[in-house]
Design brief:
Four Helix Bundle (Hemerythrin (Met), subunit A), 7 helices, 2 strands
């Protein structure tokens, strides 16, 4: 039972997070434009417009199914078995990822959306967690799923992490191309140039003289 308890807690924590995350969707500002409306009347490439939305949506859906089904594959065996301290540490990592996601979401405020959109009054947000990375919510999601996978340690759970990471990266690309078009390269483009996408930059060591 002690082996299973962290896994049960991890999935319970994730379910509560997902439910609470979607409850507050209605507090977002009205949507002004989406990649599909932006690309209407012209040919769009894979990775942009409606096609890009379908692509990252399919990859993310696949990763989500893998995460959901992973505990059902426990009977087939785990890749490795963690010592208890690792499992409980990963629960703390998951909690940190959830807190990071909520910090970014609350900081973004009414500009947040589950899909790629331009909201009413949209502007570049480059403070708080957005000062460190351009997509802190996606970074938090990756941390959460990584913690879950390490607790579960089934092949399906471990493969789900790179699948989800790929889906989030594809979504970030669609979002950034769209925001450059909507907000201008001088605004969002300059933000891209000075801020990494998903991983914060390591602080530079001072040069020794």
């Amino acid at each position: 039972m002690l082996r299973i308890a962290p896994l049960v807690i991890a999935y319970a924590l994730w379910v509560v997070f997902v439910l609470s995350w979607n409850v507050f969707d209605r507090f977002s500002a009205p949507t002004i434009a989406t990649p599909s409306t932006r690309s209407s009347g012209r040919v769009s490439r894979w990775g942009t417009g409606a096609r890009g939305e379908r692509l990252h949506g399919l990859v993310l859906a696949l990763g989500m199914v893998m995460i959901v089904l992973a505990p059902a594959t426990l009977a087939a065996g785990r890749v490795w078995v963690n010592p208890p301290v690792v499992d409980w540490t990963m629960l703390l990592v998951m909690s940190a990822g959830i807190a990071w996601c909520w910090w970014a979401r609350l900081h973004l405020g009414r500009f947040w959306s589950a899909s790629v959109t331009r909201k009413e009054g949209h502007r570049v947000v480059d403070t708080g967690p957005y000062r460190l990375v351009r997509h802190p919510i996606y970074t938090g999601f990756i941390v959460i799923y990584l913690g879950m996978a390490i607790i579960c340690t089934t092949p399906l759970a471990l493969v789900a992490v790179p699948v989800m990471t790929l889906g989030l990266w594809l979504k970030a690309r669609v979002e950034e191309r769209f925001l450059v078009e909507e907000l201008g390269s001088s605004n969002y483009g300059s933000y891209q140039a000075r801020t990494p996408m998903l991983l914060p930059r390591m602080p530079r060591r001072p040069a020794h003289t």
